[in-house]
Amino acid sequence: MKRAASVMVAVAFLVFGFFAVSSIAHADEIKVVGVITKIEVAKDGKSATVTLKDNETGNPVAVNVTDDLTLDKFNDHRILEGDGIRCKYEVINGKNESKFFKKTAGC
Amino acid sequence: MKRFIRNAAAASLLLGMALPVSAMAADQDLDQKVDSLAKEVEGIKRDAAQAKRKSLGQWLEIGGDYRFRMDGLWGQTAAFTDVTKTFANTEQTLQSNFFNSAPVPPGFPSWQNQIGGLMNFSNNMKQVSSFSGAQTFLANNQQMLQGIGNFAVQVPAYKPENETLNTNRFGINLHAKPIQDVTVNARLVGYKTFGSQDDSAFSNNGNTAFFGDRVGVFDGSIGHVPTSSLLDIDRAYATWSNVLGQPLWFSLGRRPSNNGIPSNLRLNNERPGNAGTPAMMIDYAFDGGTIGWAPDIDALPGAYAKICYGRGFESGFSSPTNSLKDTEFLGIAVIPVDTDPLRVWLQWNKGWNVFDFPVMKNTAFGDTAPAVELGSIEQWGAGSMSTLKNVGPGSLNFFAETGLSITHPNDNVSANAGFQGLLTGTFFNPEAPSDKTGWSVNLGTRYDYTPTATKFGFEFNHGSKNWITFAPAADDLWTSKLGTRGNVYEGYIIQELKLQPISSYTSKVFFRLGYQYYDFEYTNSNNWVGAPVKIADIKPTDMMLLTPVKTAQDLYATFEVHF
What is the ipTM score, two decimals? Predict the structure, then answer.
């Protein structure tokens, strides 16, 4: 059992280490963790403007979301106003373009 | 004239000077009113914001579900010798002969001595807890064993059936956000059989039960098998997310460790998200905790990993008569991808100090409780699930998963189970402890036809001889289908009512019609006590604690409301 436990701990460290190495931050990406206060899906359904209330500053941050999987979740109401979000965005042509948008994890 | 002009000019000048003053006074009055209005508006905004913050909808969500379910259950058993009935028959016959002063067969002790001998046999049997001790005990009690054999109760093969078993189930879900990044989730469930306030409908009415996970209700299955009108706590846990600003979470409580992926498809539930466990490995109401990490990795969308702990049995204070240890579980889950088109999961679990019997009341065995730890059980699993939208006029879901179980028995055997160990031995026929490996595969698909909100699903799973899982909370009345040692086929149709949701975006009402066919190849599905016996090899003289089932069918229909 001790050997098995050691193997398991080693595997866990390998896995978590893999995740750590795989996570590469882009220098110009801005991270925001906050709560959705507003979701406005464009009429053509190809983008959505989401306003987040930044947990740290309390300021609203409007982010443009264009990835299909997230837009799907807006349409299916699996992401709603009031949900906690972790988001990374880049400022492109004066607009905050979302690069990473997902609900706060937890169970 | 000059004076008039001078006076008129002076008057005009005076008037001209007075006008700005009066205009200024009017402006000032207007400014004051505007300021006052602005302050009033700000105040109203503040009050509205405060009211919004305090309103229940900002921090509390209440939902739930009601389900009516009708099951038609048909089975086919194999002929066997019923252990419980045999011991009862032995005791009753000896007592009856004693009280009726029946003649004692030549060479036999008196009825009184035989009754005393049986009691001593039973009491001494309970003192045995090791494999070698069991061998010695059996060697020293051959005469008694032969005597008991004379009272053996053989049960011929028969077809148990219950054409209409109706149940009500009602659940309330609460989701509260007391402070930023902390949530509390709870689920209370009441699940009962029509016209009953106990579990007899699925545990065979006080007769010998069919499967170990349906002998009665216990901590791991409460709320998931029909019992009474009482509301049980199925889930109650608090979670702190974004710990120290990182994508870390920490959660404690009665876990969401049941009805996980892919059972959400046939149950028509929402996908569990980060919560939950793979149903083929863990479908068990655990108390425990989780530490999770969901790193932001662009190449692995939705990736997360978690370490989960659970306690399956609390042994209480140690004492000279209680040396049992707590039954503990540990699991490591790695989900490298979690998106609609693809979800991949990898999991390892282990349970230590696994008990022989859980705590149960009023079963066919009487009240049961752990008497001995039999060793540990390890599981490895992997699977994937996919939801593809716009496949024709609907969506296609499909999944494939596999699991491996390895038992690590210690030297202990269960006296209450006739000296059977962790997947070792049969009744009064102990086997030297050795690791046993089993495997399972689970496949399924569901097509959601959007125009009519109709869903068609089919699932198949196979478990090998020594496959064992922790799934007593599965939504199956015969036994957890994913723990079956054999094959199970299930088909179902779900018809949702295409009406506008009101209470929440995920509200729905639907009918479900389904059919399950179990083809058991070995005995003791979902039971880690005793070695599985091939169904085809069972003889009527084989002593068994549970009724061996060859095949079972469940035709079911539900009416469900999720709000």
Answer: 0.80
Q: Which residues of A touch B245 (CB under 8 A)?
A: 33
Q: Do A69 and B301 touch (CB under 8 A)?
A: yes
3-state secondary structure B265-278: HHHCCCCCCCCCCC
CA atoms within 13 A on the CB side of A96: 17
Domains and CATH numbers, chain A: 30-103 (2.40.50.140)
pTM of the model: 0.88
| DSSP track, B201-216 | HHHTTTS--SSGGGSS
CA–CA min distance A93, chain B (Å): 22
What residues of chain B score a pLDDT lower than 70? 1-2, 4-5, 7-23, 52-54
Tokens standing for residue B453: 């909100």
pLDDT digits (tens, 9 = 90+) for A64-75: 999 998 999 999
Residue B54, amino acid: K
**Do residue A80 and residue B505 have CB atoms under 8 angstroms apart?**
yes
> How much of chain B is in helix, strand and coil states, percent to nearest 5?
25, 40, 35
Q: Which residue of A has its CA nearest to B505?
A: A77
Residue B181 sits at the chain A interface (C-beta within 8 Å): yes
**pLDDT for the residue numbered B105:** 87
Closest residue to B247, CB basis, from A1, A12, A105: A105
